[in-house]
Amino acid sequence: xxxxxxxxxxxxxxxxxxxxxxxxxxxxxxxxxxxxxxxxxxxxxxxxxxxxxxxxxxxxxxxxxxxxxxxxxxxxxxxxxxxxxxxxxxxxxxxxxxxxxxxxxxxxxxxxxxxxxxxxxxxxxxxxxxxxxxxxxxxxxxxxxxxxxxxxxxxxxxxxxxxxxxxxxxxxxxxxxxxxxxxxxxxxxxxxxxxxxxxxxxxxxxxxxxxxxxxxxxxxxxxxxxxxxxxxxxxxxxxxxxxxxxxxxxxxxxxxxxxxxxxxxxxxxxxxxxxxxxxxxxxxxxxxxxxxxxxxxxxxxxxxxxxxxxxxxxxxxxxxxxxxxxxxxxxxxxxxxxxxxxxxxxxxxxxxxxxxxxxxxxxxxxxxxxx
Length: 371
Known about the structure:
Number of domains: 1
Distance between the termini: 10 Å
Strand content: 15-25%
CATH superfamily: Glycosidases
Structural class: alpha/beta
């Protein structure tokens, strides 16, 4: 999804992306709705780079893209480095020296984007996984700015520049569920860095004890680098729940606002273009499938980035996709196409996407050619 990119909508009109969306992603005032799924991975951390795409995932991903398109999906969320075991390429001292060792990462990503374009699907590339991060070289990027800068210079910027302008590139997601890494219940005089408000939320489950300020700086620096390399790119973060994404409730805090990210990292371009919340199990009263998107009081579009009917507290997949569409969320990505814990089958996710297929109404545009 690109600023100033032209889409030919099915009604025959041509719209262009606006540079100021207000509270939503839109095309000349028409809200765009993400309707899709998480591919996440076929082989965890080994889908792209070092020859892995052709060897492991290309055939499967191409089949999945066709299936998503058949059932009306327009977007997929895909994980890239994950924990950093395959990409990027680290040297013996933990500095990044290249996107990958063999030079196939960027071509692999482009091949995937080309197939996505052929199926009218937008791709959200997720760079890192904060829900589980065992590679110490990757953990060190949060603690050592020189190593983080080496990633930006040697891997991130080359990727973004190489893929800039590709019509199927929907967005870059800096990190999935960074709250897994956070030092929870840590007081700070600055409310942006104070994690006491989410003390009872369960954040910090990965036991890495990284202060919120360092996580925010990690996001801020990479978001800014993406915007420098490609000013039209969209950037997001996948938060594990509403607890870290809104100031609307007593037990929540929006740690990823423009002000908080700038306060942590100091880079004015390092902001998010849209927010994203994940939600599972028995939903609390403030969870996405319980309230309107507007109840969060956010000034940016909001996507429900992970969910499943198998861990939904009783909602069907059809109800979940319809709820997201009808209650002013920017879209929904079910978890996940490869299957696994708290995942729905592909057939079930297909039924969910099918609920929104062709819904190009005043509530939002779902299906449109990518040109």
